[in-house]
Design a protein that fits this description.
CATH class of the largest domain: Alpha Beta
Number of domains: 3
Largest sheet: 8 strands, mixed
Low-confidence stretches: 447-451
Helix content: 25-40%
Shape: globular
Mean pLDDT: 92
Strand content: 5-15%
Length: 451
């Protein structure tokens, strides 16, 4: 006789009743963290042992950094990514509008192997040390994936926090052209062996829809896959637009195209919903994206030395200050935020209310980080999981890595498959699947099960 089973209220997996921990079996502080992340949950409802383990890890990590359960959660915790693998020995290339040598990438060790600007014949390494308006997007995508959390004491690190990076600038904040993305991919292809590149993240899209049969950018992405590179591409943020177009290179067949999910900054799978990602079919009739990953509430760096950084630092200091200290802090930093300067005569309670409204409006986490949204950040998260998988099993080919990520993804109930593909990436399951693969046949036999 089969043991009685029912669904875990957190992860929705069917588990034996005896595997559900309830009431007195759960620590009070652990129960409080679960309740904060799962509205309506009570200890009587229980949680499976895997969820208890995951929440206990999160509790310990947040406690170690003195962070409350209501704070923006670090990406590795949200994904339950295995801490053992951090992309060691794997190089990830990023194509974007610009970059900056952020402390999370270059301290205590500079992990940037190369920087190239395909739009300029003259480029200098020191260009990375001078942030400009085009630097912020690529800085955020690369740090989301591979940052070590240096400016947060290790809290807001990426999943592949020990991977090496190659940074390829393909345009500016104002414009990245179809042709320049193609040039960026072709540069990566020519230099893949030199820098040991295994994964490419493209958080930008072409100028128009096009068939992969004739489009040069799509064909460059296909060639990259054939020559040993896993290309991860953001599907775009046009899910609310008629036609919700998927542009190259995200529309190419071999590319792992990533959409966004909204986990509501919570740890439980039951909270997952959709972000307004673009979705197929493409002009070639292909269904995209294949997987989804967090596309909102993602912790990302603020570009140092900018007015935005100065304002975020001021807001964070004011929020941490006692009532008597607030005016002193504001006076010492006059001129950074004219609105706060004008409000300096308010009573402390009113001034604090204004500060907290601005923190929320500007999505400030601290003086060094804010939370961002867009599939531009979902894609590097998947690229960072791929780096974990390749550290765990360097023999994986791009098609195998892609298939395992698809095969271990988890479908979100109530969301059409055309919007979510095979579902939300499961970092822990994907890495475990990579460890278990001994041959290409095993990878191709992986299957996703709607859960």
């Amino acid at each position: 006789m089969l043991p009685e089973s029912r669904g875990c209220p957190l992860c929705r997996r069917d588990v034996a009743v005896g595997e559900l921990l309830t009431g007195p079996e759960l620590d009070a502080d652990l129960g409080a963290l679960i309740a904060a992340n799962t509205p309506g949950w009570t200890p009587a409802g229980g949680a499976c042992r895997e969820c208890v383990r995951r929440f206990a890890t999160a509790r310990d990590e947040l406690g170690r950094h003195g962070v409350s359960s209501g704070a923006i959660l670090p990406t590795p915790l949200r994904l339950a990514a295995p801490d053992r693998y951090r992309g060691r020995g794997v190089t990830v290339a990023f194509l974007d509008s610009g970059f900056y040598a952020h402390p999370d990438l270059v301290e205590p060790e500079d992990r940037i192997l190369a920087y190239v600007d395909v739009t300029r014949t003259r480029r200098r390494a020191q260009d990375l040390r001078r942030p400009d308006e085009s630097s912020w997007h690529g800085t955020m995508t690369s740090v989301v994936a591979c940052g070590n959390g240096r400016r947060s004491g290790g809290l807001y690190r990426g999943v592949a926090s020990e991977a090496r990076l190659v940074l390829v600038k393909c345009g500016t904040l104002r414009r990245i052209t179809h042709h320049d993305i193609q040039r960026g991919l072709e540069w990566v292809l020519r230099n893949r062996r030199r820098f040991g590149i295994r994964v490419v993240n493209v958080s930008c899209g072409g100028d128009y829809e096009a068939s992969y049969l004739t489009d040069g950018l799509s064909q460059a992405a296909e060639r990259a896959s054939r020559e040993g590179l896993l290309v991860c591409a953001a599907v775009g943020n046009l899910g609310h637009v008629p036609g919700h177009p998927v542009l190259p290179p995200a529309s190419a067949p071999s590319v792992l195209t990533v959409g966004g999910l909204d986990d509501q900054n919570r740890l439980d799978f039951a909270a997952y919903g959709m972000y307004h990602s673009s979705f197929g079919p493409t002009v070639d009739g292909l269904q995209k994206p294949e997987v989804i990953a967090p596309g909102i509430w993602v912790a990302a760096p603020i570009l140092p030395g900018t007015p935005t950084a100065a304002q975020a630092d001021l807001l964070s200091r004011l929020d941490a200050a006692s009532d008597p200290e607030m005016k002193t802090v504001l006076a010492a930093r006059a001129g950074i935020d004219p609105e706060l300067d004008a409000a300096s005569g308010l009573a402390p309670a009113l001034l604090r209310q204004l500060v907290r409204l601005k923190l929320k409006d500007q999505k400030v986490i601290s003086g060094a980080y804010k939370h961002v949204d867009g599939t531009s950040f979902a894609s590097p998260i998947v690229a960072s999981i791929a780096a974990q998988m390749l550290e765990a099993n360097p023999r994986l080919a791009p098609r195998e890595t892609k298939r395992l990520l698809i095969g271990t993804a988890r479908r979100i109930a109530g969301v059409n498959a055309d919007r979510q593909g095979w579902g939300a990436v499961d970092a822990e399951a994907a890495v475990q699947a990579a460890l278990e693969v001994r041959s290409p046949r095993q990878a191709s036999n992986a299957r996703a099960v709607p859960r």
